[in-house]
Amino acid sequence: MPATTPARRRGRPRGGSSDARERILAAAAAEFGARGYDGATMRTIAERAGVDAALLHHYFGTKSALFTATVDVPVDPSQLIHGALDGDLDGAGERLVRLVVTTWDAPAFRTRGVALIRAVIGSRRTSSLLIGFVSREIVHRVGDRLGGGAQAQHRAALVASQVIGLIVTRYVIELEPLASTSVDQVVADLGPTIQRYLTGDLTA
Fold this sequence. Notes:
Helices cover 71% and strands 0% of the residues. The chain is mostly helical and 204 residues long.
């Protein structure tokens, strides 16, 4: 009876030591800072950290998730976009506003989110990184969901402007009465505007 070759056990990717996650985050910060969001890649970050690229995917999954961990964003915005725009686009404007407001209304998220926004406003380097991130992971994702092309990207940029404006007005400068308006009222007020940006007539 022929001898069977034992199955090869999958080993830990190169560089998977106890401090690997911290080294990856440090390398990501340096790489994003040097190359910007679009210029940095999972491969170059792995090389800088001295680990296999597979380890980055093991710890973080995607470049977007790695970036949010690097700059301490409380949640990956691209996931919010996916959750709001998944399925039928009818009603997506209200879904997006509700998701944004309920997420930011959570005290722990709000504290970290406001701190990040204020840091971005005060730092040209951080703001340039986040501009690249927002463009690639939010505007482009929304545009792709709308079918791609210049018109879709224009609509996506309008959506981003409205959402960012809502976040800054309600949570950073806390402008009343918007700062204390109920979630349902904010959804009712802003949902139709974002829905128009997504699917409505922009010439009206």
